[in-house]
Amino acid sequence: MSQQLAYVIITPYSLHKSRTGGILSRLITRSGVELAAARMFAPSAELVKQYSQAIVSKNDPQDSRIQELLQNYILQNLSPDPKTGRRRRAMVLLFKGEDAVRKVRSVVGNISLDRRGGETIRDTYGDLIMSEDNQVRYFEPAVFAPPSADEAEAKLKLWTRYSDTDAGIVDNVISYLPGEKPQRTLVLIKPENFRFPSGRPGNVIDFFSRTGLYIVGIKLHRMSVAQAMEFYGPVREVLRTKLKDMVAGKAKASLEKEFGFKLTGDNEKQLGDILGPVFGDNQFETIVKFMSGTAPSETPESEWSKPGSERCIALVYEGVEAVRKIRDVLGPTDPSKAPPGSIRREFGQTIMINAAHASDSEESANREFGIVKPGENNFRQVVEEFYGKV
Fold it and tell me: If 187 and its partner were Cys, which of 5, 30, 135, 315 is the partner (CB 3.0–4.6 Å)?
């Protein structure tokens, strides 16, 4: 079976109801294909119009009435608000793998009047409610996904053509009360969540949804060695100095045991001065390798800027007091000290393997945005590497 690209579009309503994490968890754990890219869109009227026209397909197993409902839904719910002109958010997830279209569609499901349970995403998060006279009272598809490889290619090319102008870190998509001052902050869902297909990335996002904040940017990111070194650069000097006493104590105990004589306090301090920076640099290398897949000392400097082998998800959250709210749900760096119900208590293991990173201030967020570049369009790159230039 050949490699395919498939997409899932999470509707504005599903995003608004914070169903993103649950949807992503199902797709990762049940489709058997790889998450290859993600991008947040604020679709223009022109993109919505073209997509609504393309949604009706003879290849779609859903009957013509359902397809008509989908077409009308797209025009009404993905278009900019007719009253304010404000665009609506839609998240596009891109998957790659053998038989990807069929596998993703089987997890998404079809829309049916006689659904019986919560097996598929649409069973759980979608709704089709009819009146007694067989008229549609309420309709919510939750997500969109293509029915065939040809449909996936055509629609992905369409969304990719608008992926620079209508997507990225989207602006002016959330309304606020007078006097409210929104912030933006960065979250990284760390590489340990992608070691094998699991619901962890989606579960972590689901925890963050408690904040009431809004996702306005998303990117699947492979951090380079250079990016990891810059990103964690402020930590390096802390590691070189903060760990001196711990290193000195362990070194003193080991030497006393090995040689059978006692060392003085001055000796211990000297050991800390010598070994502390060395140990700190080693810890820094470990962090860089954890995030990028390669330590600086193992990699030629000419390759430091190449994307790493480890994956993470970069998310931009927006809202009032976004930095504090995200940090509160995340919990402290050490999972053993994190309170029950926090992300790091639930999913963390060590100070480094602690599920996620979040900016500790607006200034840090701005610095980290510049390194990770969550608005960067690697969505287009993945599509064009597969299909050719769009």
Answer: 315
Report how far residue 352's alpha carbon sits from residue 335's, in angstroms, rounded to the nearest whole number: 9
Distance from C-alpha of 167 to C-alpha of 293, rounded to nearest angstrom: 29
Domains of the chain: 1-168+375-390 (3.30.70.141), 228-303 (no CATH)
Q: Look-up: residue for tokens 């947040």?
A: 40
Kind and range of the H or E element at 229? helix 225-231
Q: Say if residues 190 and 357 touch (Cβ distance below 8 Å).
A: yes
pLDDT digits 0-9 by tens, 327-379: 999 999 999 999 999 999 999 999 889 999 999 999 999 999 999 999 999 99
For 156-180, how does the pLDDT look when each residue is reduced to its tens digit (9 = 90+)? 999 999 999 999 999 999 999 999 9
Give the pair of three-digit tokens for residue 337.
Answer: 């000290």
Distances (CA, A) of 370 to 12, 123, 161, 322, 383: 27, 40, 25, 18, 24
pTM value is: 0.93
In the structure encoding, which two tokens stand for residue 204, read together?
């972590």
219 pairs with which residues across the strands?
Answer: 314
The Cα 390–Cα 380 span in angstroms is 9
Q: Which amino acid is at 267?
A: N
Task: Copy the structure tokens of residue 136.
Answer: 């549609």
Cα 222 from Cα 311, distance rounded (Å): 5
Tokens found for residue 37: 């890219």
Beta strands in 235-368 (DSSP E): 312-320, 356-358
Q: From the candidates 105, 325, 357, 380, give the one annotated as an active-site residue.
A: 357
The two tokens of residue 66 are 């359902």
CA 110, chain centre distance (Å):
26
- HEC profile of 67-97: HHHHHHHHHHHCCCCCCCCCCCCEEEEEEEE
DSSP strand pairing (312-320 vs 136-140): unpaired
Q: Is 189 helix (H, G, I), strand (E, B) or coil?
A: strand
Q: Is 330 exposed, middle or buried (0-12, 13-18, 19+ CB in 10 A)?
A: buried
Q: Give Cα 83 distance to the centre of its chain.
A: 31
Whether 357 is catalytic? yes
Helix, strand or coil, per DSSP, at residue 286:
helix
Distance, CA of 378 to CA of 164 (rounded, Å): 10
At residue 192, φ and ψ (nearest 5 deg) are -60, -20
